[in-house]
Amino acid sequence: MSMNRRQFLIFSSLSGLGIAIFAKIFGNKMAESSNISAANTPKPASSPTSAKSDTEQPLLRFVSVADTGTGTREQYAVAEAMTRYHQQNPYDLVVLAGDNIYNNGEMAKISAVFEQPYQPLLKQGVKFQACLGNHDIRTDNGDPQVKYAGFNMSGRYYTFRRGEVQFFALDTNNNADWKVQLPWLEQELSRSNAPWKIVFGHHQIYSSGVYGMNKAFIDMLSPIFQKHGVPLYINGHDHHYERSQSLKGTTYVICGAGAGTRPVGKSQWTAYSVERLSFAAYEVYSDRIIIKGIGTDNQVFDQGIIPVQSA
Prior knowledge:
Elements: H1 2-13, H2 16-34, H3 51-55, E1 60-65, H4 73-88, E2 93-96, H5 110-115, H6 119-123, E3 127-130, H7 143-147, E4 158-162, E5 165-169, H8 178-191, E6 196-200, H9 215-220, H10 222-228, E7 232-235, E8 241-244, E9 251-255, E10 270-274, E11 278-284, E12 288-295, E13 300-307
Parallel strand pairs: 1-2, 2-3, 5-6, 6-7, 7-9
Antiparallel strand pairs: 1-11, 4-5, 8-9, 8-10, 11-12, 12-13
GO molecular function, one term: hydrolase activity
Protein name: Putative purple acid phosphatase
Keywords: Hydrolase, Signal
């Protein structure tokens, strides 16, 4: 009791300024001990916080979007967000991950569903690299899209390189010629000396959405990704945004909310998922890839990082 009384007398004799200082120190200690300060508030996903990220220029910046080709106001809203992001963070590459023209891949709609929505980006020299979705092959098996100059496809599956990053576009449709495509993928991954290898296709491999996990692709493609050190696979088909945790060295990103959305849940391997009109943005550095989910309000709602894999 004598100690409590002594503390009370000391506290009572403090000036107003002393009380304020005491209260501030005490309050800061309480916030630290209960982990409720602003600096410790949990964020939706992991994000790099070093000053290096703010000053170092990426080796490559690009975005991805899929299931876009509706010509609706929702598609235009995402396209406008992509344009605004470009103004602040210039990029010259868009991975267009299929279902480029709804509902049946009709090239007669190409102006309404591609050339007009993305006109500001196209005028700035941004290059779109597309793959075929299940809706795209409904007209002439998608061949007109493969030949369309604006999609920059050198075949139904193909590879291209941007500096330190090599991309591999797949035909993941149900009539794909896997007997030829799979050995091609193995060969191209084997001969590539790019520090970063990124694969994209239309269909999901891991998903918590309507279509769920694709066991056939998990069995067929995931071991190849692991064998050849592929850290990232990008797709659409499910109309939501989802970023997986690293699964045997590969992160799976779904960016299929480019013109509409469907419900999505969360799996034990999900890092972040949301039903939200959006696109994904990427910054590639020598030692990491930063992934961002960006909505039509221009806000970053998810951010994650893929570290470089050790040799």
